[in-house]
Amino acid sequence: MNKVTYARFARHTVVNIKTSRTIEKYVEPFVGGGAFFFFLKSNYKVKEAFLYDINKELIIGYKVIQKDVKELICRLKDIEREYLDLNEADRKDYYYKVRDMYNKQQDNFDYNTYNNEWIERAAYLIFLNKTCFNGLLECLLRGLLIAWAYNY
User: Fold this and answer.
1) Where does residue 31 rank: exposed (0-12), middle (13-18), buried (19+ CB within 10 A)?
2) Looking at the whole model, is its pTM more than 0.70?
3) Whole-angstrom Cα distance, residue 24 to residue 11?
């Protein structure tokens, strides 16, 4: 199963689901990678869902998937093609170049108004997550990614 793994403490959630297998309203204040919500969504009828997280980067990713998944997939395929055409040393350089661009973009990024930059940022987040050491992104308090490249 493909997933986004993000470093933070997990919260245990207990849900009382009636035998009707229908959830009228689901509110998740700390969606993170969304594993619990996507489990519920695939096994129960969820009529209304509200997913939140303090991490703006995750919310951008979810919004892009919701609004422009085809554009996101195209951008990810471009990144994949560029990355896989490189030798091992150049892949490491590419990873750090993308990580640096991602971190520098943070200060001037418009987190409030959806635009095409969100697609690029979400694609970079997914790329960095899938190519960093152990697939676990780590951030400093300022939000800068510090995860290291990993050789698979």
Assistant:
1) buried
2) yes
3) 22
**Signed CA dihedral, 103, 104, 105, 109: sign only:** positive
Look at the block and give the residue holding tokens 């990355």: 83
Interacting residues of 138 by C-beta distance below 8 A, sequence separation 6+:
7, 145, 146, 147
Longest dimension (CA), the chain: 55
* Helix axes of 56-84 and 116-131: crossing angle, nearest 10 degrees: 70
Is the distance from CB of 44 to CB of 23 less than 8 angstroms?
yes
Distance between CA atoms of residues 56 and 107, nearest Å: 13
SS3 content of the chain, % helix, strand, coil (to 5): 50, 15, 35
22, 41 contact by CB (below 8 A): no
Show pLDDT as tens, one digit a residue, over the chain (152 residues): 344 444 443 343 344 555 678 888 888 888 877 888 888 888 888 899 888 888 888 889 999 999 999 999 999 999 999 999 999 999 999 999 999 999 899 889 999 999 999 999 999 999 998 888 766 666 655 555 566 666 55
